[in-house]
Inverse folding.
DNA sequence: CTGTTAGCGCGTTCAC
DNA sequence: GTGAACGCGCTAACAG
């Protein structure tokens, strides 16, 4: 384990000069630079990052908070974020809060202990006032999240638009009894989607009916359950808006299993544009979210905030969202 | 940003005593301990981790190498590994090699620069002799991987058994022309599965036919392609073993789209037991891998190696694998 | 252009 | 039981 001192000795120079070479400082003669590089190679020297961090007060590490990774939406977010980080020379520490405020709070200490230069929250489990004090220790950037109270940058998708275009699509197909089926995360992703959903209904002069609303659907199993709950209603819905492709897939799968035809008897629209939407029979209409763009932007903003050290200001970056029409909402039986 | 010095001053004690309290050292009187804790709380003091790392020569961070996260198998691995790490007080840095030897090599410097205490490889892109020199800087543990040359711990699943039981199941269903369809990763996960596949065939006195082998199938799209390739053969296979549920789903989806019935005209078995296997119609028979157990064990072994500093020895931990029979291999038309 | 020197914040002998 | 002092490896003044 060689140190900068060893390199200096071998090259017959001082530590300073070696340090200058490492950090591409100007004012080092070409000969000495060669000497240093030679010595470094010979020793297989690499600077110790703890020492560097201690000295420079930065770690080049960013923490990314997600509720869990297995959820395909977050998988994609983590994947994109890691690539963006690598591109900028940062490492990513993954923190799964598992929807637990305690775990979230605990991971927040990474900022306090200076193990990371900043925290990107792709999930918020605590009240903002609980999180805010951590701003004393470094920047926090919200990604796919938003909080009225939080005066920090927020990179997000236009969820209201997502709810709107998906619902409008169903309305255009002639549906009038449309169910709303969403995972009721504490986040306002869900509430924004509902705003869009309601807006579309309003435009068509349709009243939002609470009995058509299911706000506890996260998994495909939930989808199956909701399907049965819906069909038991008097005047059951003819279409359903869902907050995730998994839920949509669960509904479609259960519907078909029970002999219903999709979309003829029940149209279904998902959310996320996951691989599964193209594998199901019928394929599933869904809402595509530019996760990669969002991740890149969030990381870019974070890096800028780390550099400038001015991060206590609300800045909102919003990306548009897009409907992808497939078979689960448009009958193609005739075409076949 | 308060330091240990500040705490000491406020408590009217020396840095040493504060340090002792932090590290639960004995020989600190109860009164002083109270004093220190009081002062720490008052200042909101938290030890600086860079300084600690520099001093103690450890970071409590482990790097996990995966080719990419979006692949559900690796999502699950990362998820489980992160939880196991959190449990043991470690952080996890995610490194996506994206199947690139250069990227892998680059990430390996995390070990050299002492940014991490150890590296868990859930994917190997370089020859072992390229990676081996890094052992001078810390432990490397293989997870879901194996290398003949590597004298390091290896935590894996019995892939040969996986190939065997899946194939045997197809044979028991009466199939005799069975295709082999697998992603030809550089890893020997694939080759072990093939060994099991061949062994099962052998037991039934059936010869392995190269024309039934497709070794370039990774995605559902590949599955669709392979389906057509298979069906164009003279005497096409009546069953297919695949190396991933995505590929299996692609095959099933395409088969049904083309009017084939599964499993009557083509039986399909997947690998990984992903969510999709229960959502497809028909549901997909697959091989369950105890990823969580493997991840926990790998992390446990890593922590032990970090502690003991003796890690240049081959140790193999192997977990059994299990077949889950669903509709894509067993006709239930009669039952319906 | 180059070297000397002083910490960054912490843990740990070694004396008392 | 407690404190003074050293050094982990590095960077950044400050001199020269």
């Amino acid at each position: 384990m060689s140190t900068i001192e060893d390199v200096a000795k071998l090259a017959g120079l001082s530590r300073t000069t070696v340090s200058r070479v490492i950090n591409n400082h100007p004012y080092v003669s070409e000969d000495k630079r060669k000497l240093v590089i030679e010595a470094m190679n010979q020793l297989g020297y690499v600077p110790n990052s703890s020492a560097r961090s201690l000295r420079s007060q930065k770690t080049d590490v960013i923490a990314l908070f997600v509720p869990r990774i297995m959820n395909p939406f977050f998988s994609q977010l983590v994947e994109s974020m890691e690539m963006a980080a690598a591109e900028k020379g940062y490492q990513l520490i993954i923190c799964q809060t598992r929807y637990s405020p305690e775990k979230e709070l605990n991971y927040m200490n990474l900022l306090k202990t200076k193990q990371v230069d900043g925290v990107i929250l792709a999930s918020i489990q605590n009240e903002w006032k609980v999180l805010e004090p951590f701003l004393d220790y470094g920047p926090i950037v919200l990604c796919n999240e938003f909080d009225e109270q939080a005066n920090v940058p927020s990179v997000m998708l236009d969820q209201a638009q997502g709810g709107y275009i998906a619902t409008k699509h169903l309305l255009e197909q002639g549906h009038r009894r449309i169910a709303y089926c969403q995972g009721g995360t504490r986040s306002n992703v869900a509430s924004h989607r509902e705003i869009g959903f309601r807006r579309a209904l309003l435009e068509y002069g349709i009243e939002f009916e609470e009995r058509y609303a299911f706000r506890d659907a996260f998994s495909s199993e939930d989808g199956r359950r909701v399907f049965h709950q819906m069909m038991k209603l008097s005047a059951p819905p003819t279409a359903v808006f869902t907050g995730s492709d998994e839920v949509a897939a669960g509904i479609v799968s259960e519907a078909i299993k029970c002999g219903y035809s999709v979309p003829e008897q029940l149209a279904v629209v998902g959310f996320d544009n996951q691989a599964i939407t193209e594998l199901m029979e019928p394929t599933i209409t869904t809402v595509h979210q530019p996760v990669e763009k969002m991740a890149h932007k969030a990381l870019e903003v974070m890096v800028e905030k780390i550099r400038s050290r001015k991060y206590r200001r609300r800045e909102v970056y919003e990306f548009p969202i897009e409907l992808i029409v497939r078979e689960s909402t448009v009958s193609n039986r005739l075409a076949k």
User: Anything to note?
Assistant: Chain A touches chain B through 50 residues (CB under 8 Å). The first strand of chain A starts at residue 61 and ends at 66. The mean pLDDT of chain A is 94.
